[in-house]
Predict the structure.
Amino acid sequence: MQFRIIFIIFLILLSISGLCFGQEIVEDENWLKGLGTEADSFPSLIYQFKTFTQEDVTKGKQRLKSIRQFAPKNEWEGIYYAETGIGDSKLIWNSEGGFFNLYFYHELKRFNYGRVNDSPSFVELINSQCRCARRKSVLLNEFV
C-alpha cells in the first residue's frame, strides 16, 4: 500500500514538473548561415521562444534577406561583432535593407531587427519588433 502511494505521488510530481518547466522547442532550417557566427556550424536552428515569437522569426528572416540583397554603400555598412566571451553577437546593417542584430549560443537566444536612419553625422537603428508582454529584456551591446 505504501509503495502505491509513493508511486502515485512520484507520478504526480513528475507530471507537474513537466508542466512547470517544459518549453516549446522548435527546430528550423539555418537561415543565419554565412554571417560568420557559431550558427554556421549548425545544420538547423533551435528556438525556445523565451525572448521572441514565431512572428518575430518570420519577420527577422525577411529583414535579413532584405539586408543581404543590397551591397554596402560605404565603409560603415556591413557586419559588426561584439565580444561576449560566450556565444556570438553580431550586427549586420545597411541603409537600404535595415539592420539585424543577434545573439547566438548553441541556439538563437535573442535577435532584433528594424530600419536604419543613416545621416552624415549619425546612424540610428529603429527597432521594428513588436513589444510582447512575455518577452524578457533585450541584451544591449555597443558595437564600435
Summary: The first helix runs from residue 2 to 21.
